[in-house]
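re: ur question from earlier - yeah i can do the single chain one, its not a big deal. heres the input i used so u can compare w yours
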Amino acid sequence: MNTRHLRALAAALLLGGASVAATVMIAPQAAQAATVRAAVGKPLQEAISLANAGKGSEAMAKVHEAEAVGGLTGGEQQAIEQTKEYIGAKTGAGGSATGCKAKFASDYNAGRYRDAIADADCLRKSGGMSGEDELIVAQAYYLSGDYSEAIRELRGLGDSPQVLELMLSAAYKSGDSGSMRDVLEQLVSSGKTQYWGNLLTSAENTKGLQDHQTLDIYRLRFLTNSMRSADDYMLASELALQVGSPQEAANMMQKGMDAKVATGDRATRLFNLAKTQAAKDTAGFDAMQKAADSAKTGDADVKLGEEYWGFARYSDAISTIQNGIKKGVSDSANAQIRLGQAYLGAGQKDAALRAFNAVTKDSGNAQVIAHLWSVYARTSK
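and the output i got, formated as tokens:
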């Protein structure tokens, strides 16, 4: 209930009080015309006065006195209910859903957030609590600085952008990195792709990331248009060269240069180095494939498959990595991530998700990377 409704209710009840007062005075002379008898009207008048003084329990005692009068008419019962609502609106006493909600709105709008939180108990007991009210309670916790309680309240309120963005802010202010990442994933999954950068920044703070895993985060930055600076393009390209994916490095630098973000001699040198290495590897693919085929383990196949992926040769990447997995690899989590990326490049999202989901929690940070890629697989078009 908004403040305008609260004021309207108060005005109606005050007008009702005036009507009650007139009835009391004329009752002995015109009992037939009275709608509220003096035995009912007088305690209701007193109840309103007590409510205006902030004495809720005393006001309710007067209402109970009016209720105890025998043979209540429909008009008298209505006056009693209106008085209860007014007392609830003014003091929170009485348990009336309308009254509780009015006081709840009044306290919140006046910045009395702790009082509004207490009012919510009255609303719940009276059965008047709505989903919108629950969100206001969470906001009250947030505005009073109790961010942990705000998060707890918000967790059961669905995944609307309003709920998630408030939870994200509460998690940030309380330093709750786990909740931040959970909320960012939900925001990204709900179509708020502008949050990819925040999610990946959070992932970059994961302790113990290997260079290859850091590259996988930058790959997602590249794919989601979340690169922040020339340094991002340069570092991502250097890491791609380091793992043997020169065409990917060249593609990253090309995009950074086209956007006039990566400029200068260093960017040009890195771009030319990547192009030169990519041309050399292209000429040597047949030899690399034969060497991988003849290897007893599948590590060389997985490495070659990752380079095929960088060249957008997705079918070759899938078959080569699959062959490596069949032979056995030293790092199965890494192989599944590379297979998932290859499937995703080929547009086979379901197969990609199966590969990413095959990386289990006991794989450490590899599971963090696989999970991020599974989120991308679910949300990318």
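The chain has four domains: 3-107, 143-190, 227-283, 284-381. not sure if urs matches, ping me
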